[in-house]
Amino acid sequence: MTDIAGAGTPVHGRLGVTAGIEDGELRLGLRPPAETLHHGVVRASVLAYLVDAAAGIPIDDDPDVWTLTTDMTVRMRPAPAPARIGAASRVLRRGRRSVTCAVELTTERGAHLATGAIGFARVARKASDPPKPVLTPDGMVELFGTIDPIDRPVREAAGIEVVDPAAGVVQVELTPELRNPAGTLQGAMVALVAEAAAEDLVSTRFGVAAVVTDLDLRYLAQTRAGPVRTTSRLLGDGPDAPIEVALVDTSTGTLTTLVYARTARADPGGARADPTHGNGIL
Q1: SS3 of 55, please?
Q2: Could you give the residue ranges of the DSSP H alpha helices within the chain?
Q3: pLDDT category of residue 8 using cuts at 50, 70 and 90
Q4: For 255, which DSSP code?
Q5: In what order do the strands lie in the sheet with 65-76?
Q6: At how many degrees (to 10) do helices 187-206 and 44-59 cross?
Q7: Which is nearest to 230 in space by CA: 190, 171, 174, 162?
Q8: Residue 140: partners with Cβ closer than 8 Å, 6 or more residues away
Q9: Rounded to two decimals, what is the model's pTM?
Q10: Are 277 and 155 in contact (CB under 8 A)?
């Protein structure tokens, strides 16, 4: 679910996404505020939201059907944050019950920055479900244009709590600011939690300025109550080894998401500075 309407403005709706209409189609971009950066690099989870929104909003056109993200892959270069990122989505396959899209992310000069692939399941809305907001492309342009940008580092805004950084254990409460209209943890916020766990594990164990560049997410179950806590496993010996991150809804013990991530060393000297943050709530 990529909608940003509802009571209050969710964290994922304040990441700097812009919208416009070109040739009759909705186009999304991102002007990343400093609060969405880590060591001067746009967070992979922030790009995950752009992938989710650019692909999901155009196909989410039935008020009686939830379009739920089932899987997502993001691959990015750990490059200094550009002034603007453009997103171009194309549908690879659209069936009655599922949709698969590819998204290319480029800088304002047309340079490749990241690529994403994403799958959606189409699930009939039940009478007991929350109401589903449905907006026209013109409505989305107006909505994105009136949202105040985030004013705190995104990890802090999401309320991610560090439990054991060397083990890659973090947790987050399921607050209204992190939910999608279906009432569960929004897909890019899931990515943010996994990203936080992976970067903490590598930065703490190896003493490097690590940024997450690769995310592979499998959304297995909806988070209903929370808090959500991670367990992590380094699948190798060095800071560039893959990391397995599992997200569990601690209220039920349900595994909600399985994530594989990789990190790279940041180059702070060549990047825009991000807000400082310490331990505890990041």
Answers
A1: helix
A2: 44-59, 137-145, 154-158, 187-206
A3: low
A4: E
A5: 17-22, 25-30, 85-94, 98-107, 112-124, 65-76, 210-219, 254-265, 243-249, 228-234, 169-172, 161-164
A6: 170
A7: 171
A8: 19, 26, 57
A9: 0.88
A10: yes
H helix intervals, 73-186: 137-145, 154-158
In the chain, count of helices (H) and strands (E)? 4, 14
Q: Is 256 exposed, middle or buried (0-12, 13-18, 19+ CB in 10 A)?
A: buried
Residue 103 near residue 112 (C-beta atoms within 8 A): no
Cis peptide before 227 (omega within 30 of 0): yes
Token pair belonging to 9: 């403005």
- The residue type found at 152 is R
Question: pLDDT tens for residues 142-153?
Answer: 777 677 788 899
Higher pLDDT, 25 or 208: 208
Average pLDDT in the chain: 87
DSSP assignment, residue 250? Answer: T
Q: Are 243 and 260 in contact (CB under 8 A)?
A: yes
